[in-house]
Amino acid sequence: MEGNQIILQGTTCKQLIEDLKSVFIEVLQDQQSHNTVMADNELMTREDVCDLLQINKSTLWKRTKNGRLQAYGQGRRVYYKRSEVLESLTPLKK
Predict the structure, then answer these.
(1) pTM for the whole structure
(2) Domain tally, the chain
(3) Residues 48 and 73 in one domain
(4) What's the CA gap between 37 and 2, in Å, rounded?
(5) How many CB atoms lie within 10 A of CB 44?
(6) 19: domain range?
(7) What is the residue-level pLDDT of the chain in tens, covering all 94 positions?
């Protein structure tokens, strides 16, 4: 593509920069919202959840058994949804 030129007529440099800024901002916002949706639906292993909550596997098992956390399975593997793990946290009373 060497030697190709784009000629803009009727557009000032300042106008071009502003137009490009708005396009970049829109693309970044779309990417950010897409990443947020993906992060909410992210599946986590038992080890990931234990690391995130700083608990051991027996505590995770108890929380799953008593219904505080919902587990999902695929074959012999157990997964948790990141959004549900974070929603399971409750604020402490002051």
Answers:
(1) 0.57
(2) 2
(3) yes
(4) 39
(5) 17
(6) 12-41
(7) 566 777 778 888 888 888 888 888 888 877 776 665 556 679 999 999 999 999 999 999 999 999 999 999 999 999 999 999 999 998 888 7
